[in-house]
Design brief:
By secondary structure, the chain is α/β, with parallel strands linked by helices. The protein folds into 2 domains: about 20-160, Chitobiase/beta-hexosaminidase domain 2-like (Chitobiase, domain 2), CATH 3.30.379.10; about 165-510, TIM Barrel (Alpha-Beta Barrel), CATH 3.20.20. About 40% of the residues lie in helices and about 20% in strands. It has helices at about 5-20, 60-75, 125-135, 180-195, 220, 230-235, 235-240, 250-260, 275-280, 290-295, 300-305, 315-330, 345-350, 350-360, 365-380, 410-420, 430, 455, 490-495, 500-510, 515-535; strands at about 35-45, 50-55, 80, 90-95, 105-110, 115-120, 150-160, 165-170, 200, 205, 210, 265-270, 335-340, 385-390, 405, 425, 435, 450, 475-480. The strands form 4 sheets. An 8-stranded parallel β-barrel has the order 8-9-12-13-14-15-16-19, surrounded by 6 helices.
Amino acid sequence: MINKFSLKNVVRLLVIVAGTAAGSHGQTVSVIPKPVSIEYLDGFFTITRSTRVIAENDAAAEASKLIDALAPAMGFRLQRAIASQRRDDAIKLELNGQLSQLSDEGYELDVSAEQVVIRARREGGLFHGIQTVLQLLPATVLSKARVENVTWNVPCVKIVDYPRFQWRGLLVDPARHFIPMEDLLRFIDTMALHKFNSLQIHLTDDQGWRIEIRKYPKLTETGALMDFTTMRQGDTEASRKRPGGYYTQEDVRRLVRYAAERYITIVPEIEMPAHTGGAIVSYPQIGLYPRKLSDLAPSQRWKANERVLAPRPETVAFMQDVLLEVMELFPGRYIHIGGDEANTGHWKKSEEMQALQQRLDLTDEAELHSWFIKQMDTFLTRHSRRLVGWDEILQGGLAPGATVMSWRGEQGGITAANAGHDVVMAPTSHTYFDYYQGPAEQEPRAIGGNLPLEKVYGFEPVPEAVAAEKTRHILGVQGQLWGEYISTAEHREYMAYPRAAALAEVGWSPKASKDYESFLARLSRHLDRLKVMGVNYRKPD
């Protein structure tokens, strides 16, 4: 016979396991990504003009962000108070370094009819707790304009939450089609709601150089004048009137600050030794045949360069000078140097490069590629940074401090992790959001492939072939929005969401709690939030 107390706990357990259920008075709670645990209680906490926000010391900045987030839709700004002034009708933000069960990004959320309490070890955890509170409120709370006749209820719950992986990222590609600053900022806002913490920006490629480097001004004076559209059309008078664009160093500082306030780290990607056409067009001396290119007008160099650096010592020094300025602008630990798709067949045809291989006692072009990557790895390590590269950096021997981003399937990540290197899983099969989401004839133009929502959600970032004691080297996951065919913010959002929402749950939520039907049920409510935010998401099939 089940007594009253045990029956109550069984019901609560079932609700926690379900992860999405009817809260108070039948209200559905639809948090994405799914928290580690939720306990549903009776009642609501209602935010009104009289509600106070209580936060002291290092929690005060997060309290200001909460007030700023609520004010546009509610039409009033909540006031701050100190703990001794008010106990009830308050939202409390508390930092407690003794919450050992939480990571630095984790939080506890207790909502009762009297108060809302968010506790965390670090400020980032408070911020993520705030994102959950925003998702517990009516979707219209995310409006940038005042919303009338809404009762701002937060259902009573107890949540304990923390991420499964430390790297939960997306990639955008302004090198192929320049992304205006305001579009990047909006993109970061949507990432923050989904608790992403990394944005990789592909700043350089054959089609354009998008970051100001003061020592080498021609990188933007010349290298920023094209994009993928104009490269396909050829260098016509019309294309010359449509410069691709670039970010000034002040733009970058603003972007980094904006992202950091939302606990998102910007990872800059400066491609080398391949995908470097924009740089070679600007400074032919770093290419294979500098005299040949220098004789051409810059407008004629775009198609004449081989799009791979000549890894002579002067080129190594040039790229390290670039990285010095990049490190000044981006304070994060990781600097991505690409390393993929190096067309080293050009090195094989070059007498100079063959002589360089002999001087360095290298057997082939793969080893020369590895030698070049190691120069950058040593340089970045000397400056207390970590090199990240696509899985081609494994060829010829992996640099000692390198982190591998595994894109050509999982094997690169498996090999690197088992060898003791950190890995970010980013395979084309599950994370390339520039792929189609349905029949090509029914979708906006994409680069190819087919990656439906369910397949993204089903991704497991830790391959079985990684030894148990090495799984700690799987840092997390990243979704890619390569920009060859994505030229507008609306198209980028369409390709990203809701697939990025699925990937957010892959990166944050416990493996054992993942359930696609539960995700779809929560997503149906979550899409209302994206609509209010003006995100041009794709409607799920």
